[in-house]
Amino acid sequence: MALRISLVMSLIMPWTRSAATRVVQQRGMGLSSSLGAAAQNRAAVVRAVGRSRRWLHCGPSKLVKDAEGATAQYHAGESTLDTAAWLSERVRSALVEAYGPEYADADPMLVPASRPEFGDYQCNVAMPLGKSLKSKPRDIAENIVARLRLEDVCEPIEIAGPGFLNIKLRMPFMQEQLRRMIADEARCAVPLAVPTQRVIVDYSSPNIAKEMHVGHLRSTIIGDSLSKVLEFRGHSVLRLNHVGDWGTQFGMLILHLKDKAPGALAGTDELDISDLVTFYKEAKVRFDADAEFQTSARAEVVKLQAGAEDSLKAWRMLCTQSEKAFNEVYGLLGVDKRLETRGESFYNPRLGRVIETLREASLLRESEGAQCVFLDGYVNREGEPQPMIVQKSDGGFMYSTTDLAALAHRVGDERAERILYVTDAGQSQHFEQVFAIGRLASIVPSTVSLEHVPFGLVLGEDGKKFKTRSGETVKLMDLLSEAVRRAHTDLSSRITAEGRTEDADFVELVSRTVGIGAVKYADLAMNRNSNYRFEYDKMLALNGNTAPFMLYAYARIRGIQRRAAEKLGAGALDTARLQASEIMLDAPAELALARHLLKLADVVREVESELLPSKLCEYIFELSGKFNQFYESCPVMQAESAQLQRSRLALCGLSASVLKTSLGLLGIDTLERL
């Protein structure tokens, strides 16, 4: 066994030494008995060499020792197996062994089973291969099954109908996986990605001198959640806030500030622009109505770009005031404080170099005096080629130029391997073009992943664009404050109806947590590509797929645990060293809950890959339902034996941990009671 492992590692290490080292160091993803079985044949070793990165990513944890169910000893820090990814890799390996290396990248078509009687997973890989292999899908399925190495993990595979594979996990394997999750309360034994990457997530991006509005809600909370998920998986994440802090509009803003608050600029007064929207409107009205003001504002832009100290000072003051307002919103939303503001102005020194790079790549063409890049496939309404302008005829630069400069910095200086841009779907074409130009100009190498993460609109209850009654854009702070106010009203009414007495701090904490959580969850629970209606009553409801429902589900479990501790002693909740064989899953509701809990690692990986937080919301909504069924049909405190009671308390504790971890990845705090 040791010799086989040594052989495989010696073959892999030259290709991915650092990745292999991380696997060995991460004890839960260590080399396993299944690895030893795979290494017994030469084909598996060859696959390990040729596909080392993917193979290591899917490598199993130390699994159940034998088919009779003897379990591995407890080791702190062990991770669970990313079962779906691991099974997919095993199916690919069997395909290669049966039909050749051209199937190494075939889609295994592995999905969660649609019904419990079909097992845990279904694999439809044989169905589309019948034509190319000139065989019956069922014969292909039999060839795959004959070469699958799943003895430690699954029951014998069932081939159903014309060639579907029904895969059922073995009970000892499930018990061992659950044991690991129970022992790791902090992260529920979710494995780290191998290899990890340097990831930049660009999100929120409000404009200086303008208040954040409802349009900034989705970018902010989707970007924050994705950053948390990526970091949870072990990636190094840099959160960037690409604020709009430069441009011709600053001429009128600076001039208006000089007229309105000369004492602040002179250092004799403090500047306090409490209403940025009003300030911006005042400046815009003056600009549109006063030709002299217009001329002076344009001159102010030139001064700012030339680095005039008084203009820069006014600009910095505007930026500072805006950042105060932004941080107030971020604080209420609970956005990670590591979100780093890096505005458009940061990239100004690099804009000229971008133009030179495009010229050197022979991508620039002059059109009506402007410097442009024409990409194949982009046309305007008249069917004419549509350029991306990178430098205006007057020498000024465009947003596209700044985005290309940002790309160059993020790849060259920040060493990013994956960059996500979380903006509305309306910017999809812009980023398609920026990414394409970045590739063509060799600003971005093929090894770096560039991904636009688009999202739909937030609509009003009438299904139209969300506006105030006067037709104004809804301020984000007003929106959030109203959610907290309504949550406070609902909580106060419930406290009165229940005859409870709670102090003001408790009411404030619960109101804020529920109100803000409701807004965030309602957004994240929707597929980000869809528009959705912003409806307070629905998002604050205590039933359905809402944050209040999830928070109550968590608080209910914590209440069960507190009552158990009061009756049995605090030691009753200490299940960290529970042995796998002590986890009892005889009742159907116990087994259904356990199977769902075991899907956590699969779901987190899917969110990481597909960038859809809604999948995590779907998962915990279903989890809360399965826990309710479990609790109603499986007595905990009145369990038939002490061992069964301990096992069920462990499932309660794990359900709470999974809910807390999942809500945390969505950026939602939990409460011990409501």
UniProtKB/TrEMBL annotation:
Position of the signal peptide: 1-18
EC numbers: 6.1.1.19
Domain DALR anticodon binding residue range list: 550-674
Reaction(s) catalysed by this chain's protein: tRNA(Arg) + L-arginine + ATP = L-arginyl-tRNA(Arg) + AMP + diphosphate
Biological processes annotated in GO: arginyl-tRNA aminoacylation
InterPro entries the UniProt entry points to: aa-tRNA-synth_I_CS, Arg-tRNA-ligase, Arg-tRNA-synth_N, Arg-tRNA-synth_N_sf, ArgRS_core, DALR_anticod-bd, Rossmann-like_a/b/a_fold, tRNAsynth_Ia_anticodon-bd
Compartments where located: Cytoplasm
Superkingdom field: Eukaryota
UniProt cross-references to Pfam families, sorted A to Z: Arg_tRNA_synt_N, DALR_1, tRNA-synt_1d
Gene Ontology cellular component terms for the protein in this record: cytoplasm
SUPFAM superfamilies named among the record's database cross-references: Anticodon-binding domain of a subclass of class I aminoacyl-tRNA synthetases, Arginyl-tRNA synthetase (ArgRS), N-terminal 'additional' domain, Nucleotidylyl transferase
Enzyme class (EC, first level): ligase
UniProtKB keywords: Aminoacyl-tRNA synthetase, ATP-binding, Cytoplasm, Ligase, Nucleotide-binding, Protein biosynthesis, Signal
UniProt KW Chaperone keyword: no
Occurrences of domain Arginyl tRNA synthetase N-terminal (ranges): 85-169
One MF annotation (Gene Ontology) recorded for this entry: ATP binding
PANTHER family named in the record: ARGININE--TRNA LIGASE, CYTOPLASMIC, ARGINYL-TRNA SYNTHETASE
Family (UniProt): Belongs to the class-I aminoacyl-tRNA synthetase family.
NCBIfam families, alphabetized: argS (TIGR00456)
Record note on quaternary structure: Monomer.
Protein name: arginine--tRNA ligase
